[in-house]
Amino acid sequence: MAIQRFLPYMTWPDVKAIDKTNALVVLPVGATEQHGHHLPLYTDTLISSGVLELAMERLEDEVPAYRLSPITISKSNEHRGFPGTLWIGAKTLYDVLFDIGRSVHESGFRKLCFFNGHGGNIGILHAVTRDLRDEFGMTMFAGSAGTFMDEVTLPEGVDPREKTMGIHANFTETAIIKALTPDLVKEDKAKPCFPDYPETGIGLVGKGYGQWKTEDWSSTGVLGDPTHVTDEIAAEILENSVSGTVRFIKEMVAYEYAKPTIEDGL
Ligand SMILES: [Zn+2]
Question: Separation of 115 CA from ligand 1 center, angstroms?
Fold first, then answer.
């Protein structure tokens, strides 16, 4: 029998008995937010927790990695105005993640990854992983199902702007949801949306960052091209993200900080 990797299914003595030297805990960070007319609100939660679960099933028994139940509501205020979007603010999300990190540390673990499904969380993840590293000396990671993904070749017919501007309810998200939970995809409602981003060098793909909300760019909630997703491509993209996540987990388990060389002779 494969080892139990879902921490909430263990007893506390089971957790106590884990060799924590390199053991990694991974928390999926999902969302409940609009994903256009064709994908469920739960898309980012399904992707982060689904890909992680499949990746963990493939690990050899000697790889010490454990997963937690996902956070299902996070910082989605850019999707306000679309019914069904639920969100917590930046400060609340920071506090939730910091407190989870502290209790993972209190349980004896030294390595923790926030496995993110929602782009709107990235700024907070950078700040809180740094602070947990600083406060508790933990080895902290943030990444996603796409972190170690190989480049995806888009099929004929998909708008080429998807490559750089497809960020939400787009081709890749539609493919992974179609592969994981096909009944939740309303394919006949999948339509591309690429607004006329200003060509000033500021914006989604410019050198400067102009802050935005989804309603600034899209009336459907889609930012990208979610069409032409066949069963074969969906399976291929899911496999790409699962095998990439297996690599990512192994890299994190093996990860060590390089000791700085002593140059000042002290
Ligand atoms: Zn999403």
Answer: 13
